[in-house]
């Protein structure tokens, strides 16, 4: 009798909710096929992958870590790893403080309409693709005809080829990254500033605090936790790599500093057919990234912050 | 309270620094726009800065003569529309069931979806999957593999979660099923968020490059970013066409500028609509369960 009512209950439950499960089935199928199924292909990092046999029928490599060992003895791999770390660190060093500065600046802006216009404009580059931006960069910095060199020329300086000199390429790469994202990255800080209790400012006003004092003692402490979380999370992503940005900005003359892990995997793997080797490199990168991200999250929580999950 | 002179001066200085940021953000785009609208001669003589010199639509004209480029523009527009609709549907299908606290297995399904944000198979395993599914060189490869963004799903889910349960419960008492509730209550209320997500998806597809580069070795279905990449880096047939047409060495610069503008203008056009909503979208996305 008891069992019967339980069955009835289950039947009733499914009668009420089957449509929800039906809805969910499509996204679940999508995730299984396009996100989880390819994870089985990771096995090829430990196999002698043969295109005609497929991943499963290909024999295991001997030793199992053969492709990892091979990658670790390749100069191109170490270059890509070093460049990934270098470019990401520079991105963080410049790309992290500037949005904080800009957000505080925008918050202090007294003219409301003007503030809106400024925000609208500084957010815009975020929506342009890296292909567009690389096109813009190549035109702006062209050795003879680019506006930057035309300006340099007018003050008597020699033309500079920014994109083919390795050191200047790094600078250009970082500068355009900043150009694209600095405005966008203020959003989260501006939202945090909005959350600060306005009474604090009013009280400071009554006490005669200067603008600088208010920024230092109210605004900055008010967004401190946001800054800490974002900083730690960005540190956690230090080995991650974008693809469009390095791929579109680079050229053959600066490969020694421009090739990062993602472009290396594409070039050697998909273009060069060394699938097992690059799958190993990709797996190495993912594993380190996940470890970094989890540690970063744990550290953020240790600092008493919310973390990202 | 009357503002002191010191405060007013500070305000002006801040406004001026902000103006510098505005200039910094606009200058590169304005320069390219000016170049695209200038004559070949003006470009050769390096006379173009932020205002078009000898205004002409010549460069645009030449870009429009390139059949492959124009076809790619149209194809990308159609593709963007399809992708946006498919992705929006998928996002709704995924986020709506997840707001029912009583749904059995909700935690598991939710976790399964979120996990894909942190772990991905990687470039090569994904590439082999496309090969195995026989999607290489098929237009579908630009639509299906990225038709659901978990980040956007979280935004919508957070929004739907914010709609009072009482609305749902009273409808349930009236005998409405989940689908009717979605259609009659939730979807009408979430129009602004859906608009934001539609624009996020649309921008994402319009700007998408790497999937086309990796999965579409044939140029037939090349979307605009791939085409633009080829133009910028002199890999395209546009160069040869132009060399046959007219021989000025700098002409390609104007042509490249115009090509960049073709890819940029649609974004700039939809940007004002996008801008109204995305801030709330980004902050909603920060809430993750």
Q: First CA to last CA of chain B: what distance?
A: 44 Å
Instruction: Provide a count of the helices of chain B.
Output: 14
Give the domain tally of chain A.
2
**End-to-end span of chain A in angstroms?**
44 Å
What is the CATH C-level name of the largest domain in chain A?
Answer: Mainly Alpha
Strand content of chain A: under 5%
Query: What composes the largest sheet of chain B?
Result: none
Description:
The complex is a heterodimer of chains A (309) and B (289). With 309 residues, chain A is mainly α. Chain A folds into two domains: 2-57; 66-129 and 156-302, MetI-like fold (Orthogonal Bundle), CATH 1.10.3720.10. Chain A contains 17 helices and no strands. Chain A has helices spanning 2-40, 54-57, 66-72, 75-95, 97-108, 112-123, 130-140, 147-154, 166-181, 186-194, 198-206, 211-222, 224-236, 244-249, 255-258, 261-271, 275-302. In chain A, helix 4 packs antiparallel against helix 16 (261-271), helix 5 (97-108) packs across helix 10 and helix 13 (224-236) packs antiparallel against helix 17 (275-302). The longest helix of chain A has 39 residues, at 2-40. The radius of gyration of chain A is 26 Å and the shape is flat. The mean pLDDT of chain A is 90. Chain B has 289 residues and is an all-alpha fold. Chain B has helices spanning 5-36, 40-44, 58-65, 67-95, 106-118, 123-132, 150-162, 165-173, 178-189, 191-207, 210-215, 224-232, 237-245, 251-285. The longest helix of chain B is centred in the C-terminal third of the chain and has 35 residues, at 251-285. The radius of gyration of chain B is 24 Å and the shape is globular. At the A-B interface, helix 1, helix 5, helix 6, helix 7 and helix 8 of A face helix 1, helix 4, helix 5, helix 6 and helix 10 of B.
């Amino acid at each position: 009798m008891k069992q019967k009512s339980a069955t009835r209950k289950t039947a009733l439950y499914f009668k009420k909710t089957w449509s929800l499960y039906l809805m969910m089935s499509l996204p679940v199928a999508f995730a299984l096929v396009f996100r989880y199924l390819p994870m089985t292909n990771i096995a090829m990092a430990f196999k002698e992958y043969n295109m005609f046999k497929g991943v499963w029928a290909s024999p295991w490599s001997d030793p199992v870590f053969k492709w990892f060992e091979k990658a670790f003895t390749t100069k191109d791999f170490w270059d890509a790893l070093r460049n990934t770390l270098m470019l990401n660190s520079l991105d963080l060093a410049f790309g992290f403080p500037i949005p904080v500065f800009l957000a505080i600046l925008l918050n202090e802006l007294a003219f409301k309409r003007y503030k809106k216009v400024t925000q609208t404009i500084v957010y815009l580059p975020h929506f342009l693709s890296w292909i567009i931006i690389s096109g813009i960069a190549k035109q702006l910095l062209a050795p003879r005809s680019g506006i930057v060199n035309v300006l340099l020329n007018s003050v008597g300086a020699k033309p500079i080829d920014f994109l083919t000199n390795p050191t200047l390429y790094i600078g250009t790469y970082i500068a355009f990254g900043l150009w694209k994202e600095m405005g966008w990255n203020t959003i989260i800080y501006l939202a945090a500033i909005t959350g600060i209790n306005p009474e604090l400012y009013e009280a400071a006003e009554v006490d005669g605090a200067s603008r600088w004092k208010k920024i230092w003692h109210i605004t900055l402490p008010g967004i401190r936790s946001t800054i800490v979380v974002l900083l730690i999370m960005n540190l956690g992503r230090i080995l991650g790599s974008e693809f469009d940005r390095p791929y579109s900005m680079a050229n053959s003359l600066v490969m020694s500093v421009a090739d990062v892990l993602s472009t290396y995997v594409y070039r050697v793997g998909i273009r060069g057919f060394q699938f097992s080797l690059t799958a190993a490199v990709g797996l190495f990168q993912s594993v380190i990234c996940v470890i970094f991200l989890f540690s970063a999250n744990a550290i953020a929580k240790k600092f008493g912050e919310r973390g990202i999950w | 309270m009357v503002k002191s002179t010191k405060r007013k001066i500070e305000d002006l200085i801040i406004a001026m620094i902000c103006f510098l940021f505005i200039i910094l953000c606009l200058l590169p785009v304005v320069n390219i726009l000016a170049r695209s609208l200038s004559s070949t001669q003006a470009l050769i003589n390096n006379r173009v800065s932020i205002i078009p010199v000898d205004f002409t639509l010549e460069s645009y004209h030449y870009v429009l003569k390139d059949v492959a480029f124009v076809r790619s523009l149209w194809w990308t527009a159609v593709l963007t529309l399809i992708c946006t609709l498919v992705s929006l549907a998928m996002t709704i299908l995924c986020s709506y069931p997840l707001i029912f606290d009583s749904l059995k297995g909700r935690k598991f399904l939710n976790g399964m979806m979120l996990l894909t944000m942190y772990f991905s198979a990687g470039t090569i395993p994904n590439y082999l999957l496309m090969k195995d599914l026989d999607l290489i060189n098929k237009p579908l490869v630009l639509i299906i593999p990225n038709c659901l963004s978990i980040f956007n799903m979280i935004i919508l889910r957070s929004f739907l979660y914010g709609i009072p349960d009482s609305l749902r419960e009273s409808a349930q008492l009236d005998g409405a099923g989940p689908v009717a509730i979605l259609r009659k209550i939730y979807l009408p209320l979430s129009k602004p968020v859906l608009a934001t997500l539609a624009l996020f998806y649309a921008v994402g597809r319009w700007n998408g490059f790497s999937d086309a580069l990796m999965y579409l070795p044939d140029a037939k279905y090349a979307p605009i970013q791939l085409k633009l990449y080829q133009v910028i880096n002199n890999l395209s047939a546009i160069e040869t066409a132009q060399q046959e047409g007219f021989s000025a060495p700098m002409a390609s610069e104007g042509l490249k500028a115009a090509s960049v503008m073709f890819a940029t203008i649609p974004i700039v056009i939809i940007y004002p609509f996008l801008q109204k909503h995305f801030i709330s979208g980004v902050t909603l996305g920060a809430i993750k369960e």
